[in-house]
Amino acid sequence: CRKLDIAPTDSYSALNFWTADANVYNALNNNYSLIYNSDKYFTAEGLSDNAYSQTNTDAIQIASGNATAQQAKFANDWSFYYRTIKSCNQFLENVDKNTTLGAATIARLKAEVRFIRAYEHFNLTKWYGDVPLVDHDLSQDEAKSIGRTPKADVVKFILNELDAALPALPSKDQMPAAENGRINKGAVLALKARVLLYQGDRMADVISVCESLMNSTANGTYSLNPSYSNLFSDPATNKTNPETMLSLQYVPATTRTWSDFWDFAPKSVDGRVNSLAPSQELVNDYIMLNGKDITDPTSGYDENNPYINRDPRLTATIVYDKYNWNNGGGVNGKTKIIYIKPGTDPVKPGPDEYSPGRQNSSPTGYYWRKYFDPSALINYVSGNNLHLFRYAEILLDYAEAKNSLGQMDATVWSKTIGALRSRAGFTEPGALSYPGSANLTNIIRKERRIELALEGNRIDDIRRWKIAEIVLNGYVHGAKFSGDPATDNGYIRAQLRRFNAGRDYLWAIPNGDVSLDANLTQNPGY
Amino acid sequence: ARPTINFTVNAANTVSGQVLDDQGRPLPGVTIRLINTKLGTVTDVNGNYKLTLPDENAGGTLSFSFIGFLTQTIQIGNRTQINISLKTDTTRSLNEVVVVGYGTQRRATINSAIGTVGAKDINDKPVLNAAQALQGQSPNLIIQQSTLNPGSNPIVNIRGVATTGNNDPLLVIDGIVSQSINDINLINPNDIANVSVLKDAGSAAIYGSRGANGVILVTTKSGKLNQKAQVAYNGNFGLQQPDILVKKVNAADNAYYKNEALANSGLPPAYTPEQIQQIAAQGNGNWDINHLVYNAPQTSQNISVSGGGTTNTYFISAGYLNQFSNFIGNGGSGPRFGYQKYNLRLNESAIVGKFKLTGILEYTKSRNKTNTVGDNNIFADANRVPHNYNFYDANGNYLTNSFASQYNEYGVLLNGGANQADNDRIYGNLNGTLSITNWLSLTGVFGGTLQNNGNFFRRTQVNYIPSGVYGNDLTTFDNNSKSSSYNTQVYLGLNKSFGMHNVSATLGVSSELYSQRGFQLQKTLTDPVFGNATTGTLIDATNSYNCITVQANSRQSAFGRINYDFKSRYFIDFVFREDASSKFASGRRNGFFPSVNVGYLISDEDFFKPIKGTVNNLKLRASYSVVGNEQTAGNYTYLTTYFNYAGAYGYNNVIQGGAGTNLSNPFLTWERARTLNLGFDFGLFNNKLTGTFEYFNKVTSDIQQTPLDVPSIFGASPPTANVAKVGDRGWEFEITYTLKTGKVTQSFSPNIGNTYNKLLQLTGNTQQILYNQDVYQLIRRVGDPVTQYYGFQTNGFFQNAAEVASYPKPAGAVVGPGDLKFKDLNGDGKIDDNDKKVLGDPFPHYTFGFNYRIAVAGFDATIFLQGVGKRDEFLRGELVEPFHYNYGTTLYEHMTDYWTPNNPDARYPRLATIGSASNTNNWRTGSDLYKFNAAYVRLKNVNIGYTLPQKISRKAGMERVRLSLIGQNLLTFSKLNFYDPETTEFGNSVSPSSASNSARSYLLPKFYGAGLDITF
After folding, report:
1. List of chain B residues whose C-beta atoms are within 8 Å of the C-beta of residue A476
2. Which residues of A touch B472 (CB under 8 A)?
3. What is the pLDDT of residues B826-860, one digit of tens each?
4. Do A29 and B466 touch (CB under 8 A)?
5. Residue B194: its pLDDT value, please?
6. What are the distances in angstroms from CA A420 to CA A74, A191, A206, A284?
7. For a tag on chain A, would you pick the N or C end, based on fewer CB atoms within 10 A?
């Protein structure tokens, strides 16, 4: 007879887990893996006016204003963030059981985990408003009765946590290369700047946080990477550059990869279905090389040849008709012209051509280029990092804050917008020099949209600027391929969107949790 | 003078012998009495007896009696040995030897609900597994399919759903508990002698903590004593015709409908009138299901040799089954897709004095070759492309088009590689019984199963024209899992009569051990021909593991059954088991499971005599018991554990491991089911009409389930706990009527059962929980059936602008004529969550079967109907929603009944595209639009045979030759006419987290074949 006490032969128990240093690091890494994911990263773009997703149910429903309190993404994202928070709290409450790592190391690990916990709370409050603040490992009973903490208090908690984490963390310059990707002072300040910026009324604080990075190297030395496109596409630059402040880390040909680009790329270069297509509205916001909007009659913009003399980031970000797809080899090695306009591809039927009612070509006539990884494995399995915070964002935060306080001037401009445009490849003074007082708010907002396109920020920005009811109402468009010049001047109508300002600025609290937690109230309108 | 009593026993005054039944099997428990004396004895387990006779009674008369058999009397004369065979009573149901767990009982002595299925109901069918053979044979033994793919496992259920956890019955094969009910599919159906279905807890209590869902006891065939060797062959061969129930509209119509959908959504048309004409001129292509399937052959071949001498028996069999898949192709190399099973069996017994030894050895190999994309994808891709496209061109190129994402499943089936699953299983069973006295025996059993399951998967590259590629990752994986289970039992058997008092008992102990361990290695960019590593091959770390399915558990148990009857008229039994399981923490692991059963053979009473000529037999029964269920719990749920895993994150491009936590519940213990069973057995009109009726009421409490009252703010799935309570009640009725007129013998055996379940407690005080299941919802609500469909009730369509303006709508909905109206159930003038209601439940009700047999001269026929009287089914996907979710781009003929001003009473709303307000209102809002009536009647089997006259067959050296024609699934009657109503999306737990039914499962094969049976 065998005994009835059978312990698992492939896992640790509470008695022996935390005492082993390697296990503590494994638990830390687990928390890192739960920070965010590629699906959330890219789906956010489909919720905004930058893109239209024809296959992602949640993006279709939410972007079109048809979401309900049952929307899967509302529940899934909510539980994702709280799962991460629990994992962080378990770590924070147990890591002291380890007696061999040393106090300084434990303090650093705790600071990293507190950053992650703060970041999840930030995401929660960003989407849902007032949310339960979970600062310890909840019991089941506590979870059934916890109420919502006012957003202002959640933000206060986040900022306090970040302030507490900062001294325990090294600066980027203090970290050995092997720790590249770990949370450091720069990451903390970048999140702090974003949290403050999103409040709208903390611009002076934004300025001081940005200046602690721009004017000092105590928190790490950062600068813009010389090449914009290499930040996303060049496997070496993507991993090691002076600009990244925190990225979701991936490793090629391992378990830690992402392959969303499979459904972004044109079919002729081995794309699968098209799950996210850039909008004409985004394309229109790329200015001309001379710095002028395409709507400016003096800009030189030609609607029949629309992609020339544009912001070089257009070509780095978006695949348009007759795009010269060149990746210089790699597994997916293709160098070819992408024909998107119906009937133009010498190959019949053209695999990338726009055609309504099909799902493997773009419903807008545009594809993505940004984040294309030439070293990706088959099916676009990529190990490139996805940037959460870049120094470029600090410059944009700074420009926006300065401008909102009426402090924008030629000096600030040249350090921020000017620097970004210069790095992007603009050379003409019309683009680089300070435009004076001419509609600076719009210029800065457009610059933010263009610089950070496909990095998930646009939806946050239009929500905090409260312009969603303008930009998410009516049709989202594609290129001028619809064949019906009478409707919207021949631009493709991809999807009709509505935005209910009285409701849609906050996501619904998942109705399941509302029913289980008597103290959890629903947001208005759901 | 009075003679001197001589106490010395001499040989002349002893009589001994063996009692057999009319099948030549030893008959234990036969009462032997010396007439006109009080002397008597009972046969032992081997049917042997020995009786010492006083001198004055030498040469008297012995009577041999046993319930269910005709009593025989024999003059001893001067014989010292008398072997006899008892003839069975004409009442079939009373005579049947019923396997009851750690022993057998005569039907007449059983006081609980036990259904039996004999070999004749299993053989003669071209069935692929024993579960299929059992379908419809016993009321409330419910067999459902989630897919009909060769080698797939049916869902076996007894008496419906009584727990929100696992409702799988326990399977016991020749006395050894199986790890999974699916093992029933590995047995060769031709090796089965009989199957007992222990439906109520009164009988299942002997299996204690695992008896709550009922028990299926399978007994395999054995040879008979004193029987010359008999060689039996049976084989059948036939074709399976896939039943395709759907048809695409032609492509020009499809384009027209697409334009209509776009127009209704405020979007420009996709096709000009010229383009539609061009499409019409093209005609239909071959991109459809019909070109992915063929009439696939299926054969089953079995041969057995059986017989026995005076002290030994043997049964040796070999079986071969080959069922080709209905999918075309072989993946590029090797045999076609399909399932093969090989069975070898050796069942032997030997009697050595008072000791009987039985040995069973069985080897089963199954191999299943399947495609590399999954059936769902195949059907979805074939379904979603308009009919003017082709899978292939005249040169054999595989084509893609702008509608299919990138796959051409025709090419995948022919050249995209395959998965080959190989399962090997060795089952051994040694059983020794010692007859200590003629009323006491001791049995020891050791049984073990070694199983090895492996998969070899290889995806190969298929190039498409004009573009697209499948399988260029060239993935290959090997995985393997080994398991072993051992069961040791020792039990005492007792069987003694004291005058009119008959007592029998079984008391024993059992120990079980189970362990399992597996691994997988996966690589990509492997050699395109062999799948092994070559230049550029990568290890796929995500999908390679050293330890998967590492499991172990053990159980120690004591069990017993005490049967007592007075005059074979008044019966009472006590059955119990005490179990201790490693799945629970010390202090929570022991459970005691008792049952008490009573029976009353009322037809045996004097007052019954006036009607005994009509009502030949009537027995009333009742049982009450407490049994358990421990299946839902994992092996280590009571322990908090931490697991390390590879590849959580990376720093500086170097991969890092991670660690996660498994939350625990140290208080976890069994589920407990309390069951009351009432029943009666009857025989009428000289037992030509026999039947059984059962009623049961079962309440399962402490159900093992994930607590549902924990919001996701908790941050993890809470560990399994004993939280829920479910009631399940129902009834079942079966009768058999035998009619002999001249040379014609007919029998009619209908059976029907019904069950109702009711959720009594969900978790704590939670009254209900909703689950989003794609486009509709499921609800679990206290007081209602365990799982139900939930949503809005439709109320026809908006017919005009006036209705649109006046009728309540969901908040923010922008609807027009042709969109669905929903009932404003609470009358508050708006449509919101408060207007949702239960729309149906997925449980099959009134499940029935009907067997009809007729024999005339050499001809015989069996017709078997089976069905479900009431069931709701929700279906979604491209076969239900036009232009499904931008994923499907087609419309099917059965969907063309949609709303237009000229078709105001349509089945479906007006056409619209995804993302439009109209589509959101109609298809994304979760209503009974998706509900279908899945009641059906199916002509499941027809078997028409002709047995050659023996004078002809004997000339050819054969005892018996029977030729037969076999049909299966020939006709189905159902209101659900585009999808097989038998399939269900739910497993045996009716789990609300099951994926919704997208109507993409494997097609129902209709079988047409012929069979041959020869006995030498």
Report:
1. none
2. 378
3. 998 888 888 999 999 988 899 999 989 898 888 98
4. no
5. 87
6. 35, 20, 19, 19
7. N
CB of B274 within 8 Å of a chain A CB? The answer is: no
> Do the chains contact at B659 and A30, CB–CB below 8 Å?
yes
**Right CATH for A21-257+508-516 from 1.25.40.390, 3.40.50.1100, 1.10.3720.10, 1.20.140.10:** 1.25.40.390
Q: Which residues of A touch B777 (CB under 8 A)?
A: 70
pLDDT tens sequence across A180-220:
999 999 999 999 999 999 999 999 999 999 999 999 999 99
B819 or B992: which carries more pLDDT confidence? B819
* CA B843/CA B749 separation, integer angstroms: 24
Q: Are B268 and A482 an interchain contact pair (Cβ–Cβ within 8 Å)?
A: yes
Closest-CA residue to B575 (of B217, B211, B162, B216):
B211
**Average pLDDT value for residue range B150-176:** 86
Domains B11-89 and B93-225 alike in fold: no
Nearest chain B residue to A354, by CA: B402
Distance from CA of B565 to the nearest CA of A (A): 37
B494 neighbors B466 (Cβ within 8 angstroms): no
B7 touches chain A (CB under 8 A): no
| CATH pick for B93-225 out of 3.30.365.10, 3.40.309.10, 2.170.130.10, 3.40.50.170 | 2.170.130.10
Instruction: Tell if the CB–CB gap between A360 and B524 is shorter than 8 Å.
Output: no
pLDDT one-digit tens code per residue, A358-379: 667 899 999 999 999 988 988 8
DSSP A47-87: HSTTEE-SS-HHHHHHHTT---TT-HHHHHHHHHHHHHHHH
What is the predicted pLDDT for the residue at A416?
Answer: 97
Q: Measuring CA to CA, which residue among B979, B1005, B999 is closest to residue B324?
A: B1005
Pairing status of strand B14-20 against strand B48-52:
antiparallel
Question: Closest Cα of chain B to A11: distance in Å?
Answer: 5
Residues in B closer than 8 angstroms to A336, CB to CB, are: none
Q: Do B405 and A272 touch (CB under 8 A)?
A: yes
CB contact under 8 A, A57 and B556: no
Distance CA(B634)–CA(B106), nearest Å, equals 38
| Spans of all domains in chain B | 11-89, 93-225
CATH number among 3.40.50.11540, 3.40.50.2300, 2.60.40.1120, 1.10.10.10, domain B11-89: 2.60.40.1120
Which of residues B914 and B321 earns the better pLDDT score? B321
Mean pLDDT, rounded, of chain A: 93
Sign of the CA dihedral A324, A325, A327, A329? negative
Q: What is the pLDDT of residues B382-414, one digit of tens each?
A: 988 999 899 999 998 999 887 775 689 999 999
Q: Which amino acid is at A245?
A: M
Distance from CA of A512 to the nearest CA of B (A): 7
Are the beta carbons of A13 and B641 separated by less than 8 Å? yes
Is B586 in Cβ contact with A239 (below 8 Å)?
no
